[in-house]
User: Which sequence fits this backbone?
């Protein structure tokens, strides 16, 4: 999928959670920050090609972000980082999760000092939500790419759908988002039904995209 499709897909997938926080808990700031984090991390796995492109300072930043994956590749004696390789795998997700978990533990350890430097009100925000959002922004990127004809390799299995990047991916994501929003608003007053029906909807749509690739 292209950059915009990834962002919209991730927002669509996480929309029920964000809507619940917004309407039921009135967590406006948390929702806005969550959307910013989704936009920032939805295309993180694509650093495997981004570090080779663009202006020098961006390439340096992307290269730094890619270092954990490079170190792992060297550890298993694999040469180079290919697109939709390590960063688009379960192993890559585990590596990203490890660094995310370490960041979370470090923040918790220095929470008082960090909050006093940044802003004390920052401590009242639901920081656990932000770390969850960042994790799923990364993982859902891989799920989205698995819906395209190129697919991704997960645990030795090639997963691919029928979507064509820069052609059918964006229309699909927009339609998916619309129906996800309708479903979410319909069951927003009941958390159990919201989780059940939106989960069934999401899994069914993803399975349907895989099935169409097998048929056509």
Assistant:
């Amino acid at each position: 999928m292209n950059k915009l499709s990834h962002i919209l897909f991730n927002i669509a997938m996480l929309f029920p959670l964000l809507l619940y926080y917004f309407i039921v808990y009135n967590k406006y700031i948390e929702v806005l920050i969550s959307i910013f984090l989704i936009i920032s991390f939805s295309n993180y796995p694509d650093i495997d090609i981004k570090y080779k492109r663009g202006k020098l300072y961006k390439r340096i930043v992307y290269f730094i972000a890619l270092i954990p994956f490079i170190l792992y590749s060297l550890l298993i004696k694999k040469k180079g980082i290919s697109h939709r390789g390590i960063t688009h795998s379960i192993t890559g997700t585990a590596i990203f999760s490890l660094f995310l978990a370490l960041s979370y533990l470090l923040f918790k350890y220095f929470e008082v000092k960090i909050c006093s430097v940044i802003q004390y009100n920052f401590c009242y925000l639901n920081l656990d939500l932000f770390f969850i959002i960042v994790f799923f922004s990364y993982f859902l990127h891989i799920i989205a790419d698995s819906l395209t004809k190129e697919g991704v390799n997960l645990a030795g299995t090639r997963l691919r759908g029928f979507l064509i990047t820069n052609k059918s991916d964006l229309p699909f994501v927009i339609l998916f988002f619309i129906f996800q929003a309708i479903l979410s608003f319909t069951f927003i007053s009941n958390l159990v039904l919201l989780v059940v029906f939106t989960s069934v909807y999401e899994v069914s749509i993803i399975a349907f995209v895989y099935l169409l690739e097998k048929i056509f």
